[in-house]
Structures are given as C-alpha cells and as structure tokens.
Protein 1
Amino acid sequence: MGDEDWEAEIIKPHVSSCVPVFEKDRYSSGANGDTFNRTPASSSEMDDGPVRRDHFMRSGFAAERSLGNRDAGESNKRENTTTMGGFGVGKSFGNRGFSNNKFEEGDSSGFWRESHNDCEDNQTRTRGFSKRGDSEYEHGEGTQRTGGLFGSRRPTLGGAEQCLKGNGDTYQRRSGSGSGRGGYKGFNEEVITGSGKNSLKSETEGGESGDTQAPKITYIPPPPPEDEDSIFAHYQTGINFDKYDTILVEVSGHDAPPAILTFEEAHLCQTLNNNIAKAGYTKLTPVQKYSIPIILAGRDLMACAQTGSGKTAAFLLPVLAHMMRDGITASRFKDLQEPECIIVAPTRELINQIYLEARKFSFGTCVRAVVIYGGTQFGHSVRQIVQGCNILCATPGRLMDIIGKEKIGLRQVKYLVLDEADRMLDMGFGPEMKKLISCPGMPSKEQRQTLLFSATFPEEIQRLAGEFLKSDYLFVAVGQVGGACKDVQQTIIQVGQYSKREKLVEILRNIGDERTMVFVETKKKADFIATFLCQEKISTTSIHGDREQREREQALGDFRCGKCPVLVATSVAARGLDIENVQHVINLDLPSTIDEYVHRIGRTGRCGNTGRAISFFDPESDNHLAQPLVKVLSDAQQDVPAWLEEIAFSTYVPGFSGSARGNVFSSVDTRKNYQGKSTLNTAGFSSSQAPIPVDDESWD
Ligand SMILES: Nc1ncnc2c1ncn2[C@@H]1O[C@H](COP(=O)(O)OP(=O)(O)OP(=O)(O)O)[C@@H](O)[C@H]1O
C-alpha cells in the first residue's frame, strides 16, 4: 500500500470486526460527572449561565474560588459526539499496520515515510527562525491566520479522537471537523486584524463565517482544586539543587542591582513570604537571585536560565510584590477589566500552569489572577475575567480575541511578561505579540515593565526583542544560554526509522512504571505510537494539537497522576511543563532544532532532580543536528558518542559556522557594546574565571 493509501486508511479507517466497545463516558465527563464538551451552536455562550455577582470584597481577600464550578455545572451540555470505534484498533489500520489487534512489524514503511512528509504537521525542517511545530502551539483561536505564516490545515486525521485506556486498550472515534482541537487556530474562532477589529466572527457571535458552520467550542475546564493543600502542593527539590550555586551567571547592561542571596533580602510582604514558605521554597535559585532584584528595581529584563530552574517564580514574585505595594485598581464586575499584569505563554497547558503558580503566590492577597486559553468556551473566559482580573494569564490567540471583544483594556498594564519568550517572538507568535504591544491603550515600552524569560534565546530573537524592551534592559544569563540542564543524563543512540518502535518498546519495558515522555514530530505519529504502545500493553496517553482541549487536559491529568506513565507528545508539550517525577524523556524523533531538543529534555531533571533523556538519531534525517548536539552534550559534560562526532564533523550544515546560525546557539547578550558587564557565580561573588561563552565563531 502506498503512502496515499495509508493516508486514506487513516482518514477512513476500515471498521474492524475487532473494534472494541467504545467507552464514551470516561472521556466525556468532567470532574464532577458533568459533561464538558461541545454542543451544537447555541445562541449565546456568554448567556448560558448567569454570572454570580454577589459577595465580592475588594481588598485583603483572595479571590473567591467557587464560581468556576458553578459555571461549569450550569453550562455543560451533553455531548453529541457520535461514537465510532475502529481506528487504531484491531484491523483498522488495514494492511499496513494492525492486524488481529497487533501492529505487525516490518509493514510500516509507508507510515513512517508518510508522517515525515506530513505537511499537516509542518514537517519542514527549518533552521533559524522556526516554523516547526507551529501547528502544535497555541496559535490563537481564529479560523485563519494572516501573514501566510502557516500552512493550511486539513480537518482530517485530527478528527479522529483518540482515547487510550490505562489498561492498554485503545479507542478511537471520529468527531466532526473543526471540533476545537487545540493547537492551531481553531475552526471557529477568530483573528484580530491589525485594526483591532475581528476579521471573522468569533465564537461569541456564533462562530460562523461565510459558509463555514463549525460547532462552537463549549468545553469548560473543570476548576482546579481550591483547598489550600492542593494550591500549595509541590514536589521536592532534588539532590542537585544546591549545585545551582556553582553555576556562573552573567548580568549585562547598565547599573544592574546586586543579586540577593535569600528571600528575606527581597523584603517581600508577609503574605508573600508565607506563600513562599508554604510552597516549600527555602532557597533562591540563581535566576531568582538575579531577576527578583532587577524586577523590583523596575528594570526591563531578558532572562535565560536552564529548564526547571524556577523562572516562573522569578517573575511572579517581584511582580506580585509591586502590585501589593502599589495597590491594584481594577474592580470586579466591570464589563471592561484592566489588568495590571499580562503574562503570555505559547501553549494552553503551560499558561494554565503559570496561572496556578500565580494563584498560589497571590493566595490570601487582593490580587486576582485569571487564565484564559483557546479550546475552551469563550463565554467561560469572559466570565472568569469579569469577576475581576489583576493578572491575566493568556495564550496569544485568546488574548487578542478578548481584547477585540473589549473585555480587557490595556491602559493599566504595568507588567508584560512573555514566558518562553523566544517562542513568543519568533515567526509563529511574533506578529501577534507585535499586535499586542501596538493595541490601543497598551502603554508604551517606556511606560510598562517588560520581562522576557526562556531557557533558550537565539540571537535573532534577542535582536527582535529590542522592540519590546526599554533600551537599558538587563540581560541575565544563568550558565550557557541555550544549554541543556546538566542534571539530565543524555544518551544519543543511532536508530534507523524502521527499528524505532521495537527499540522504544524495549526501553519502556526496562523503564517499567517510571514516568516517561516520548516525543515525536507529528500529531499523526503521536496518535499512532500511543496506540501502538497501548497494544503492547504499555499504559500510554497522548497530547498533541489535534486533540480536543478536554482530551489534552485528561491526558496530562492521567500522566501526572501516574495512571498512564507514558505520555506520547509532540512539541506542544516540549516547553515549560513542570510535571513531578518525569524520570525519562525519549526522543523517538529528534526535533528539527537544537533549542527544541533542550526544551524537550528539560521536562525531566527539574529543580535539582536528576533525569534521563534518550534520543534516537536517524542518520537518514538527523544529520543536521549532529553538530549542535555534540555541542549541547559537551557543554553539559555528557559523553559524546564517537559516531556522532564523526557525523558532526563530516556534515556541512549551512549557516552553522557563520554568526547567523539561526537558533543554534546564542551565548551572550547580543548587544555587543554594553558596558558594566559582570560575571558572578550565584553566591554573588565576582569571578575572574568566567567561562568565555562559546559563540558561533568558536564552534568550528
Ligand atoms: N526556590 C525554589 N525552591 C524550591 N522549588 C522551586 C524554587 N523555584 C522553583 N521551584 C520549583 O521548581 C520547579 C520548576 O520551576 P519552573 O517551572 O518555574 O522552571 P522553569 O525554569 O520555568 O522551567 P522551563 O524552562 O522548563 O519552563 C517548579 O515545580 C517550582 O515550583
């Protein structure tokens, strides 16, 4: 069967006699048993549950936490999805793969080839500014994007919903196209034009544009637990936490305030200190030691620190401290809310995580944090906002949408935070971010404080960032910019395309029940591998941009709680996610860029804990990564296989030897002529032996 046939096979799976009974309810119910899912378009989503407008006290109290539940309960409606089993099970992969409930080895060549040429998944291996994985990120909510940055999207395979049971059984059903799968612009959401007007009708207006009649997104995420124990639940720092103190830190820019060595030196208010203690933080991480005083001093900041080293608290704590000091102005139940702080991140799960951190640190204060993101009911986002919003955590698309609907005003914005800032400013999100800073009412960069955080900062992005930052911004580099976390033991093994599954199963069987994230390059492949692993009786779930938001959250929940110890993921889960006890990351496919690799393996080895990353290197497709891989490995003091070195030095990589190597490495603040540069270790002492950062030129 050729590739085309395989495609057809996926789109129209044979209904197999081995199709299992579809267990609908397990996947259609919210935490309280209600169904959180889509319904046929209703007249007004914003009206489908009266908003409670009572008992809001302004100061001295944490925000009420009971409304989300109620809203969810009132507005959830019965799912109308037709259940269809078949795909991914039994013979539904037809001749190519599954047969008698087994995936047959050696009969998969078409799949592998097909998925690597899968334009739906944006498989172009780009260097430099990356369009990679764009499909996997929260690109907002509109039906189409302007600027032609993104390929068209076929409502094909993604319509096949995958349900993976912990016991190894696998279900698939197909849902209608445009069902709000997450990642790209959805089918029924909108794009804000440069003028701030909506180019298409949004969900709130019926989600229809021209002939398109897409179902509305009605998913309302279950509210997070509200008891104090859950809010402050945290995992332990690892044995290497104290080693953070030896990492060299470089601060560049004029008049940087000195680092602090303890939380006490930050002079935060008592409530914040209590929350910090309840969160289990006793000692600052390097990025916190430097960033907190810089932000408290009112300076703009670009901060780069290794994955899992506490960047979130590094910006949240000083912003909150300022808000507590200055007081907040937004009042509840105004139709237009004017937050003091906007935090943007590229994926829904990440922004939700940041929100939970903001909620934790603002516990017991008058500051109210709100999260809004795509794939969820628009009316739900509005209801969250009108209850009062001081810190708005948002994905870019939903943010622009809500601004366009005039539910959020920007006049009061004092802090703009871009987490995963290099991603937020690259070709994927950069245009959206530019729109954001030029929105009517948004204070100019001189009037607001802008904070950019990431573990990777390509030079090009640093240059672009100038548009967002005051010219005297400070740059903090903890260790090697773009370097991998040294607590992750990295192994690269050569595995050809056709041996990958076999090798994966072998490794997973050795790993046993330890939590493992398996990264693949395409959404289709994520479905496929997850299904395959389930058939191998390895409890697996998956997360990618074609899954509905409800499914994505369910998958993450199942992985977090250990119900499914294996999570197959695309780039959508590469950045920022902080999941306890992820001991292994496996790159079944290497990503297209080295930055992506650094982020992916950073899902393990967090906060001083150790982890392992195993990457399958296929010389047929991954040679362009050999050089940067060798560098990342050696910088992190990992063994570099001789064969990899050989490939690295025999492979010509365009641009690698030049200074404009795209996103390969950026070691320092790209402002070449800064003064006042100081290099210190994280105990705060100057070091005359700071390592000269390896730059492009020194590489070859
Ligand atoms: N000072 C601290 N003491 C103890 N735990 C901390 C401290 N700072 C952060 N943590 C914890 O470390 C974990 C990782 O933090 P965080 O998610 O902010 O890392 P990050 O640097 O943003 O990572 P990534 O680059 O992957 O986004 C979180 O669980 C967080 O609560």
Protein 2
Amino acid sequence: PEDNVLHIGGIFPIAGEGGWQGGQACMPAANLALDDVNSQKDLLPGFTLKLHSNDSECEPGLGASVMYNLLYNKPQKLMLLAGCSTVCTTVAEAAKMWNLVVLCYGASSPALSDRNRFPTLFRTHPSATVHNPTRIKLLQKFGWSRVAILQQAEEVFISTVEDLEARCKEAGIEIVTRQSFLSDPADAVRNLRRQDARVIVGLFYVVAARRVLCELYHQKLYGKSYVWFFIGWYEDDWFERNLDKEGITCTKEQMRQAAEGHLTTEALMWNQNNQKTISGMTSEDFRQRLNDMLKAHGYDIDNNRYPEGYQEAPLAYDAVWSVALAFNKTMEKLNRLGKSLKNFTYTDKEIADDIYSAINSTQFLGVSGYVAFSSQGDRIALTQIEQVVGGTYVKLGYYDTQSDNLTWLDKERWIGGKAPQDRTIVRRVL
Ligand SMILES: CC1(C)CO[C@@H](CC(=O)O)CN1
C-alpha cells in the first residue's frame, strides 16, 4: 500500500558535457543501496524507502527545475540527494525553504562548507580542502618551509588555495609565490622559475594539468631539484593520454620525464581494509556487485570502460545508508510522540529539525570508509598519498587529519637520491 513508503528525491548528473557526469555510476550505486536498506527488516520497520530521480546534467538551472518537479509533484519528498558542486549549491541554497535536508554525494567545492548559506546540507563527498592538512603534513615531514602555488582560475581551486594559505601561515610555511592561469600556464610557470620555486603545489583540472606538465618540460622546472604536488584523482595514465587531441606539443616520453617523482594527495573513497561494513559487505564485495550492475547497464567493465563517477560510487551508496539510518532514528523519536515521518510536510520545521539532528549524529562504517559529518556537514575522510615512480603511481601512505596520524610506507624515491631542497643553498667558501 502507498502509505508505508518514505519518498526521497535524487538529482544525478548523467548526460551533458560540462562538469562531472558522475551520476552514471552513482545512480546505480544509490539504487543498490535502496535494495539493501529495504531488505534490512529492522532498519525502516513497516516502511519502504523509494528514490525518485532525474538528470541534472551537472547544470544548476536544470538541477533547479528537477528539484521543483520533485517538490511540486506528489508524493511528498522527505529529503534530496544531489551531485556536482554547482547543482548542490543551487539545490542546497533553495531546499531550506522547503525544510529539506540535502545530502550531496558528489560535491567537492569548499564554498559548500557554510552553515549560513546551506543550513541543511550534508556531504558524503569530502571538500577539496581535505587535501590541505595532508599537504602541510608532507611539507613538514620533508622539512620544506618554502612553497609555491600554481592554480587554475576556478572557484574550487581559489577557495582551496585560501584554506591552504591559512594553514601554511599557521604552520610557519612561507608561500614564496602564488601563480594562477586561466588556460595557458606558460607565464605562470615562468614566474615560478623567476622566484626559484622548488616545492610547488599544483591545483587544476586534468586537461590543464597536461598543459602544465608539458610547460614544465619546456621550461625545465622538473627533475631532481623540484617536487610537485598534484591532485590524485586524475586517471592513473593521465599524463600520457589525449596529447594529440588536446594539442599538447610534448611526446609521451617527455611527459613521463616531467611527471616522474611528483606526489599526489586525494580523499579515500573506497574503504581500504577488508572489514565488513554496515551493509554486511566489504568494499570489494560492493565493487563486484556494482561491476555486475554496470555490465548489465551495458558498460564494458572487463575492458576498463568505466562510467563517470565510478570512483565516487561508494559515496552515493553510503549517502542512501546515511538517510536510512537517520530516518530510523527519527521514526523512533516520532513514534514516542505519537507522530510519524508520514506526517512531514514542507512547512513542518519540527520534523525537519529531527531529521537534521538525526543525520548530524549519524556515524557508521560504510563502503567509502568511516562516515561522519563535521558541524558544517562536511564528510570527515582519510587521504591517500602517492608518487609516480618509474612512470606509475606507488602508494606512499595515508593521513588521518582527525588524529594527526600519518601512516608512511617508506616507498618514496627521489631522482637525485634524496628529497629536493626547498631553496637554492648558497655555500659560502670561507
Ligand atoms: C573528486 C571529484 C572528481 C571532484 O569533483 C567532484 C564533482 C564536483 O565537485 O562538482 C566529483 N569528485
């Protein structure tokens, strides 16, 4: 019967070109989670969770119209799932007017960490600033106290750099220069050379990263005297791909030379150990089930033809579990008051507050790792550090910001046999 269904809205970036079409893997992952939470008899006793979804194409305007259609068409929704930073910004800013919690599984923009603008937003996707404590930890580990920044002029990188600058100041690390570029990095790289930058943090999307790497090759800003920090969520062979298509003038060999030795940081999105998570699966069990589902959708997984958003699929799966666990807590509380989630309407601030506080205190081991939210609704996550050694990425370690615990595997290799210096050492001959 219709009356024992709990309805939620889902806005997924599927089609379209601009931005991140991660809904391609995240929507199937969310549907997997719906099957799983609905087969747990004790989770939403007497109720079934139902997801009503539509495609935002990662376009904020289309995302807004999808949201309005979800809200102005029966049945009444209890909360919204969304992906893409631009869409989450629009949806989360508006959703408070309908007293709806918004859970974003695919939004990395630091601007979303703002309880004034987004009072009901939670994210299972960590903010891009999650890399920064790890970068500071690595600078301190190798004794680098003089660092430069090269960034693409995009909102997500601008706000990430602001957070990084604040943390460098706190840690007594000098930022010798901060260079930014729109699409051609040549001048910015030249300025790095002029300032004798040796340890450089690079923040750009993968297409810009290929341009930067070829520029480093031409301007010789790579090799044993330099260390670069790049973002770790590009494809593993990103520096050898699309060179002709994107007009990169360097050969694969030159790109490999320029890339050798660079470090990367990224948020962990797949639980690393073989522990059974709240769903009873390990993250590898989840990977198998997701792969089977994606093959059934026509993706040639066995030949590495993955849909976009595969990396973030655990975040969407765990987002649905977060909702189910929060509803479970809310139902228990409402039952004690003789009320039900079924009574929720878009003007019911009390039940909205109950759902908010239930999700705010939700913590569990998910396939994406330990799920917990900060006071601003941000995902608390581990980060992973890698280095390109012999042309492929090698895991160097993991960092837990909360406990300031760096797990280091001693796998790093330096071209000159030891870590580069952060400045030119002038030796006075006495
Ligand atoms: C790690 C990445 C690729 C960062 O961008 C996210 C999309 C967005 O923030 O719009 C998805 N995950």
